[in-house]
Write a structure and sequence with these properties.
24% strand; globular; 14 helices; alpha+beta; eleven-stranded antiparallel sheet; single chain
Amino acid sequence: MADAQVPRIHLPGVETEDRVVLDDDVIFDEDNTHRRKSSLVTSEAAALARSYHNTACFIHKLLEGQRRSRNGADLVEHVQPSTEEPDQGANRTDVHSRLLTKRQLSDMAWGVRELSKHLGGIRMKLQVRRIFILTKVYDDSLIENTREVVRWLLSEDRETHYTVFVEETLRHDKQFDAEALLSGHPSRADRLRYWTNDMCRTDPQKFDFVLTLGGDGTVLYASWLFQRVVPPVLSFALGSLGFLTKFDYSRFPETLNSAFLDGITVSLRLRFEGTIMRSRGRGVARDQHQQKGDLIEELVGEESEDHRTHVPDGSYVILNDIVVDRGPSPTMSTLELFGDDEHFTSIQADGICVATPTGSTAYNLAAGGSLCHPENPVILVTAICAHTLSFRPIILPDTVVLRVGVPYDARTHSWASFDGRERVELKPGDYVTISASRYPFANILPQGRRSEDWVSSIRRTLQWNSRQRQKAFKKWATAKDDDDDGHDGDAGDRKT
């Protein structure tokens, strides 16, 4: 392909040093009527196309830029970022992955996967103005680190006047001492602000960049706060393990200068969307001649047009894993596992762990699951203490939609947790839908380190394949060697 024919992708606030070829788009096939049986709320599906084009997620802006390029739009247009504050609540429309058809979900996953592949080979220059800082506020040493980073960002030595957001709990924290940071610097007064959980959920486009100070748990909390749109996340290693924290805090001025001036390399990490589905009938017979409800029949059997068996009750986007277990019950759980429109298996175990590739080194690893590179587009399913000898961990493509349910005849209730948070009770007849999220986690990587960085981290933190090296064989002595040395042991034996 000639150089003049290669499209350059532009979007508000982003420049790319290299040209990028994206060969396809995320296309939703309106003619495809195949839908998963999960008691869908059809009124939400109509908003799908509108939300895709109006999203504030910079990943979907790239996909939208690709779509415009393929439709003949100006390929070299560059729009400068707005200097105004984003409208409050501009991204109101949420489209859940469980509402997509099988074809739509496959196209979405493929589009994000291809975009991630291309982003790994370029540097993106972001026009950063508003920076979100997340730290463990209960750790006194990290509060001092946070104060140091804020002071550096607010300094008049910076060419750009950044607006810095820190957690609301630091407003009156004596160790953070916001008054001392602002005293004598009138220009800083409007540039130090405070974020709340509601702001992350309702107005995530307010932030251009996220900094985390802590360990992997702090990064997971950032993913939890931004349930839909996630700004690019740069993580400084101040925790224990460091699978997700790639940057040395002692060099934070050089790291931030490089990110803001030279650009960043982004890895898109797969996230899951988990939705709690509550049974309407709770398995109670509607008349004396009708049998008690059957979860398998409800989910993969014939469905009447005017009757929906389940209703959604909360949806969560996670980065690590979704676990359904026995909770406080002393007996094991009985669960049903479904994939798309098939019943996979019945499970009798302490529970089941459904992990992303990022979460393969967490609970999945402890339960005996496989280690998986975070760029693999897969779903890892691992039983927790299964009461069988044959339940091996399995790896499924990210286009499969899983459902884990509690059958109506189960002896006990089960409990679902999402990245270790929001523990929810599942009663008989309830289930959890698990699918790939439309909103991946944009993790910033050090330059020149991609696959080798992950392998190094599991070597360092888990001592992967670490053992004492086997000694080499010593040279075997031969009869000729004995003769050369002047020894004739065999002859001496014969003479005696």
